[in-house]
Specification:
Helix 15 links the parallel strand 22 and strand 23. It is built from 16 helices and 24 strands. The strands form 5 sheets. The protein has a 6-stranded mixed beta sheet, covered by helices on one side. Strands 7-8-9-10-11-12 form a 6-stranded mixed beta sheet. It folds into 3 domains: 234 residues, Metallo-beta-lactamase, Chain A, CATH 3.60.15; 107 residues, Oxidized Rhodanese, domain 1, CATH 3.40.250; 100 residues, Oxidized Rhodanese, domain 1 (3-Layer(aba) Sandwich). By secondary structure, the protein is α/β, with parallel strands linked by helices.
């Protein structure tokens, strides 16, 4: 028996490859199928099943393409309804892969169809659980994504409590837990950086598995402090239910080099968004007018999903050399399939064609300290929790997550100094403001990590007068 966790850090997502005696199963695959097909080919193995723990909201799964290419059966748990062929497992139903068995344990709560898969080894012993978003390490899945007219987030949280108590906790302590996500995912609040653990250790350390916790306490605690889900979550879940273009089609039409004039023509004719995916320093120093920065060197796909509201938005790319395929692939993972191409030759070709560029001022924290005055306008674009923990005394909380909803609060005639924690998010925010007509912007390099080392007046949650 072979189990391989295929972890994608930028999405904080774990897919799984399970192989036994010439047969394989894939659990929660990403959009592109090549990683799974290569593993199966290397082992001369047939992919028999593709198991989905639930309708994912934070990425588009590769289950449909994978089944089409391999003849594998797509397995969902109870309550899953799709526009394509699946096998809907019953609670407790088992599936044979070589000499091992996978049993579907219906664990509703994160969503109504959420299912945990229990792997039994060659000897019939419980070996591991693939929990999807039902149980994370240190946390559980948020129960506010599948709200309907007849069911509330409190109802779903109650179902999750029952699922954990009735299906997960009774399993042996030595059972291995393989979750769908780790730290950085918006599918939970306090996910661990670790990506595998024993159930026994989770029973000791995960607040949601406390033996003395009542259902009422669980519901209150699991719902406390949840930020609103990113806007693309519901759209990705719908794609996973209804189907999507093949990844190969998306890549073929999106990974296309475009000369500057063609690039500009498409931008104007198609109303395309020019998305610059280089580093924040490169963007701030020089960029195409009205382009938006979201760099490949950070949490690229989740920020695209949070900030670009239309999945069908035409997109033109500014990419580092050799990174066009990666950019199109990572966009497709969250359902942005309408990439039209990338600027061939980058900004060098753009300028050689006689076209203009712009820049955004960027200064160090030390320089900002010297320039600091009481009446400066400072935008702190970190998350609310980060801001509450500690912030500059005169800093205004203006979370990047909600920037599109609060643009009217700002004045285009004012000068804004912008910072986040390290510099990535502030460059995104500055690019959005610049594209919306804000001209007097200054990015603070190194973000709050650098500002914290200065003597500028600060406020923190525990010590308001510090």
């Amino acid at each position: 028996m072979k189990i391989e966790q295929i972890y994608t850090g930028c999405l904080a997502q774990g897919a799984y490859y399970i192989e036994s005696n010439g047969e394989a199963a894939i659990i929660d695959p990403l959009r592109e199928t090549a990683p799974y097909l290569k593993r199966a080919e290397k082992g001369n193995t047939k992919i028999k099943y593709v198991f989905e723990t639930h309708f994912h909201a934070d990425f588009v799964s590769g289950h449909i393409d994978l089944a089409e290419k391999t003849g594998a059966t797509i397995i969902f748990g109870p309550n899953a309804k799709t526009n394509y062929n699946i096998y809907q497992a019953k609670d407790g139903e088992s599936f044979k892969i070589g000499k091992v068995t996978i049993t579907a344990l219906h664990t509703p709560g994160h969503t109504l169809e959420s299912t945990t898969y229990l792997l039994k080894d060659e000897n019939g012993n419980d070996h591991a659980i693939f929990t999807g978003d039902t149980l994370f390490l240190g946390d559980v899945g948020r129960p506010d994504l599948a709200i309907k007219q007849d069911i509330t987030k409190e109802d779903l949280a109650g179902l999750l409590f029952d699922s954990l108590r009735n299906k997960i906790i009774p399993l042996a302590d030595d059972v291995i837990v393989y979750p769908a996500h780790g730290a950085g995912s918006a599918c939970g609040k306090n996910l661990s950086k670790e990506t595998v653990d024993t159930l026994g250790n989770q029973k000791k350390t995960n607040y949601a598995l406390r033996a003395d916790m009542t259902k009422e306490e669980f519901v209150k605690e699991v719902l406390d402090g949840i930020m609103p889900p990113p806007q693309y979550f519901s759209k990705n879940a719908m794609l996973n239910k209804e189907g999507y273009e093949t990844f190969e089609e998306v890549l073929e039409k999106g990974d296309v080099p475009l000369a500057p004039q063609k690039f500009e023509t498409l931008a104007n004719r198609e109303g395309a968004l020019v998305l610059d995916v280089r580093t924040q320093d490169e963007f701030l120093k020089e960029h195409i007018p009205n382009s938006i920065f979201i760099g490949l060197n950070g949490s690229f796909a989740p920020w695209v999903g949070a900030l670009i509201k239309d999945l069908k938005q035409p997109i033109l790319l500014i990419v580092p050399e050799g990174k066009s395929e990666e950019a199109v692939t990572r966009l497709s993972r969250v359902g942005y399939d309408n990439t039209l191409g990338y600027l061939d030759g980058g900004l060098v070709a753009w300028k050689n064609a006689g076209k203009e560029t712009e820049s955004i001022s960027s200064i160090t924290a030390e320089t900002f300290e010297k320039q600091y005055q009481e009446d400066l306008h400072i935008l702190d674009v970190r998350k609310p929790g980060e801001y509450e923990s500690e912030h500059l005394e005169k800093g205004k909380s203006f979370p990047l997550d909600f920037i599109n909803d609060h643009m009217a609060e700002l004045d285009k005639d004012k000068k804004y100094y912008i910072h986040c924690a390290g510099g990535y998010r502030s460059a995104i925010a500055a690019s959005i403001l610049k594209a919306r007509g804000f001209e007097d912007l200054v990015d603070i390099k190194g973000g709050y990590g650098a500002l914290k080392k200065t003597k500028l007046p600060k406020t923190n949650f525990s010590c308001p007068n510090s």
